[in-house]
Amino acid sequence: MCEVLQVSRSGYYKWRSALPSEQQKRKAKLTERIQWHYEDSDKRYGSPRIQQELVKEGWSVSERTVGLIMREHGLRSCMSRKFRPATTDSKHDLPIADNALQQDFSATKPNEKWVADITYIPCRQGKLYLASILDLYTKQIVGWTLSDRMTTDLVLDALKQAYAAKKPGKGLLHHSDRGSQYASKDYRAQLKQYYMKASMSRKGNCYDNACMEAFHSILKRELIYCAPKFKTKQEAKDKLYRYIEFFYNRKRSNSTLGYISPARFEQLYYENIS
Questions:
Q1: Partners of 146 in the beta sheet?
Q2: Which end of the chain is more exposed for a tag (fewer CB within 10 A), N or C?
C-alpha cells in the first residue's frame, strides 16, 4: 500500500501511531459529557451526581473515574463556608408543642410530614430571611417566602403558600423549631384551621429538624456562597426563585430519592397509585 501511494513505511507508521485509540476517543466523549453536566448544574454537581447522570445516559463509568477527569480539568463543585447567624428566638412564654416527630424523618406518602425553618440570607442591600417548608417524603420545598423581617407573617406566608399548592388532607404533621414565629397565636391558629398537628424540636437540638437544616445547608453551598453576595433584595428573590422552583425541586438529583428530582419522585408516586 505504501509503494502504491508512494509513502514511506516510517511515515505511515508515524501517522498511524498518532491516531487516537478507542480508549482515548471514549475518554474524550466522556469528558465532554462530564463538562456538560457540570455546566448544566451551574457548577454545583460533584462526581457522585455527575456519575449518576451519566449512568442514566447509558454510560458505564465509576464515580472515581468521573472524579479523576474532573480533577484533571479543574472542575470542582461548590463548597460552603462555616457561618450561621442565629434565627431561632426561643426565649418566650408562648405555648410549645410536643416533639411528635421524634427524629423520624421517614414518610410513606406526600403531605404526610412537613418540616419548617428560617434561615438568614446575606444581601448588600440589607438583611433577608427565608422561611421554607419541606415535604419529608418527596424532599420538595412545598412553600417558601423571603422577607427583610423575621416575623410571624414570614412563616405564615410560607405555610399558606404550601397549603394552597398541595391541599393536604387532615392530620398532616408539621414540625418546626420552637421559635416565637412558629409558637405564635396566629401560626397555631392557622395550623388548627388546616387540621395539621404541630410538633416542635427540643430546645437547642438542631438534629430534631435535621432534614430542614440539610436543605438550608445545600442552598448556602450551591447558591449563596458560590457567587458574590446579592446586591439587591430583588436579585436575591429572583435567584432564590430560580434555584428552588426550577433547579432544586424540578431538576436537582437527590441521592435519598435514587438520584431523581423531588418533582419527578412525586410524579412517580401518583403514577404508581393511579
A1: 130
A2: C
Of the candidates 157, 139, 159, which has an alpha carbon nearest to the alpha carbon of residue 149?
157
Buried b (16+ CB within 10 A) or exposed e, 208-247: bbebbbebbebbbbbbbeeeeebeebeebbeebeebbeeb
161-188 pLDDT per residue, tens: 999 999 999 999 999 999 999 999 999 9
CB neighbour list of residue 55: distance below 8 Å, 6 or more residues apart: 61
- What pTM did the predictor assign? 0.80
Q: Check if the beta carbon of residue 154 is closer than 8 Å to that of residue 129.
A: yes
Strand partners, 117: 132
- pLDDT digits over 130-166, tens only? 999 999 999 999 999 999 999 999 999 999 999 999 9
The sheet carrying 197-200 orders its strands as 141-147, 128-135, 113-121, 173-176, 197-200
User: In sequence order, which residues have a C-beta less than 8 Å from that of residue 182 and are 6 or more positions away?
Assistant: 116, 155, 176, 198, 200
Helix (H, G, I), strand (E, B) or coil at 128: strand
Closest CA to 119 of 196, 218, 204: 218
| All three cell numbers of 131 | 422561611
pLDDT value of position 82: 47
Average pLDDT over residues 181-208: 94
- What local confidence, expressed as pLDDT, does residue 99 receive? 96
